[in-house]
Design brief:
about 525 residues, 5 strands, three-stranded antiparallel β-sheet
């Protein structure tokens, strides 16, 4: 139709490079923008688009996990990737690919650009997520799109992170002009709102029927029988599962710890499952579950959750040690969990795995743990502020609020809740240390130890002993998929009662069965030795 004409002749284009013919315009855009970016970037984008079109999971995952970070380091370390207009011409305006590309584009800006994203970029990122979720949720039939599970997890995780980041940005009024505040409060009032976030995550959970599938698995049934038209696709099923973890994180950021555990009701959080193959997802889940347990004063459950995941990190670290972007995040959360574990062990002493105990000794947690045992509130505060999530408020400041920073308000509120609990039991370690020395102890003698002389001080001592009994009884999970259920158990290694001003003390700690311990280690060593011999052969 157009044979024999020279399309490199610029005379046929208008001032904007348009001829009115779609095919010619597309060719012009491709030639124009291709001159603006390196050849390897063009080649990568074209092949990335083709792999996503064809649904080649291996190629998609390799490009997503390896090639994209490598090109980012080489060409876009402190700058943004080419914008949508430049890329669109290369990939023939493929709508689905452009949405996915922009998700990576804005994620890169949040992570790499000095000073962070601008307001316009934050808003555009939100609307791009809306386009993606509308595409897959509003479709009358499942969208035939295949993405690797690691991308699906990081997409949901990044969605929640950008909500958290925007909420903190929105709460900083001191560095904003009145015009910016008007724009945020009037023109873009619903951008990154908590209702939008919850609506998206719950919609993904519902459309995937992931709760029914998890329930069927726990009952030993085939999940495909309840998966439905959308849930039988791995794409929707994994998005639904990761959205449950996203809801756990959102509710934790809002300080609603009961609801945070409640949303995970279908997931057997104390057992490994077929869905726990993404290390970052498993670690993030344990971090927020353990933190929620700690804030609900379920210290035994928090200690078990932190200990299990920290052991998992120790044993599998070599699997992700070469991936720096994952390694940094995992190391940070692991460090936070060691701090939270130290807090829980001070408030609720119990035996933990020796390898975890060894890390606590090597990293000099012991000095601060000793300070906390002695009632040093500053040590508790320091550990909590380092290890807690960056809380957000569900309601942004109003347009007529004083021009101040409100970022720290949610954090200070949660810190106050935590410190109130610490103050209630700051004397418990001292009381325990005295009681451990005796089998019977006159109340008058214990009073002399703590300089209690008047009748009021004696009454305070009785309250202190009652507080010890009360705080050592926790609700502890024992079985089932519901992490909120459990039985009240005493976590103290000693018990006591008072009769005629005499304290009778009993050691309830069960002695270690060292024989069983050494037998297990010997069998484990023999099994390991046998495997090594087979490998050598």
């Amino acid at each position: 139709m157009y044979g024999g004409e020279d399309y490199n002749n610029q005379d046929i284009y208008d001032d904007y490079g348009h001829t009115g013919d779609p095919q010619l315009d597309m060719e012009y855009e491709r030639n124009y923008y291709s001159k603006q970016m390196p050849e390897n970037v063009k080649y990568f984008l074209i092949n990335f688009c083709q792999a996503i079109k064809e649904g080649v999971i291996f190629d998609i995952q390799n490009m997503y996990e390896n090639t994209f970070p490598q090109i980012s380091d080489h060409h876009f370390d402190k700058s943004a990737w080419p914008d949508e207009q430049e890329v669109s011409a290369l990939v023939e305006h493929d709508k689905v690919f452009l949405i996915l590309y922009k998700e990576l584009y804005y994620r890169h800006i949040h992570a790499r650009i000095p000073g962070g994203p601008k307001l316009e970029q934050r808003i555009n990122s939100f609307f791009n997520y809306c386009d993606f979720f509308n595409l897959i949720i509003s479709s009358p039939s499942p969208v035939l799109l295949e993405l690797p599970d690691i991308w699906l997890w990081e997409l949901v995780d990044e969605f929640v992170y950008q909500f958290q980041n925007f909420a903190q940005y929105r709460a900083r009024l001191a560095d904003k002009s009145q015009e910016e505040i008007q724009q945020l409060c009037v023109q873009h009032n619903n951008v990154w709102s908590i209702l939008c976030i919850l609506n998206v995550l719950h919609s993904l959970v519902d459309i995937s029927n992931i709760k029914k599938q998890l329930l069927a698995i726990s009952q030993g049934n085939d999940p495909q029988t309840v998966a439905g038209e959308f849930g039988e696709h791995s794409f929707y099923k994994m998005l639904g599962y990761f959205s449950l973890v996203g809801l756990l994180r959102v509710h934790s950021l809002l300080g609603d710890y009961y609801q945070a555990i409640k949303v995970l009701e279908p997931i057997e959080i104390h057992k490994k499952s077929q869905y726990s193959h993404i290390p970052a997802c498993q670690i993030s889940t344990s971090y927020y579950v353990g933190f929620a347990y700690m804030m609900m004063r379920r210290y035994a459950d928090a200690i078990r959750t932190f200990s299990d995941i920290l052991l998992y990190i120790q044993r599998t670290k070599q699997l992700y040690s070469t991936r720096s972007y994952q390694n940094d995040q995992i190391n940070k959360q692991a460090e936070q969990m060691y701090h939270l574990l130290a807090i829980c062990l001070v408030l609720h002493p119990q035996c933990i795995d020796e390898s975890i105990q060894q890390v606590l000794r090597e990293k000099n947690y012991q000095d601060n743990m000793y300070k906390m045992q002695c009632g040093d509130l500053e040590a508790f505060k320091m550990f909590f502020l380092f290890a807690c999530p960056r809380f957000v408020s569900p309601c942004p400041p109003s347009v007529d609020a004083p021009m101040e920073d409100y970022v720290k308000d949610p954090m200070e509120h949660q810190l106050q809740v935590f410190m109130d609990e610490v103050r209630q039991q700051k004397d418990v370690p001292t009381t325990r240390s005295y009681l451990k020395l005796y089998t019977t102890l006159p109340l008058e003698k214990l009073a002399s130890f703590i300089d209690a002389k008047t009748d009021d001080e004696i009454k305070t001592l009785l309250i202190r002993l009652l507080c010890f009994k009360h705080k050592m009884r926790n609700l502890v999970w024992t079985k089932g998929s519901n992490g909120l259920e459990g039985q009240f158990q005493s976590g103290s290694e000693l018990d006591f009662y008072i009769d005629n001003d005499m304290i009778h003390i009993a050691d309830t700690k069960v002695s270690h069965r060292y024989g069983d311990f050494f037998i297990r280690k010997i069998l484990k060593f023999e099994d390991l030795n046998r495997k090594l011999k087979n490998i050598t052969i």
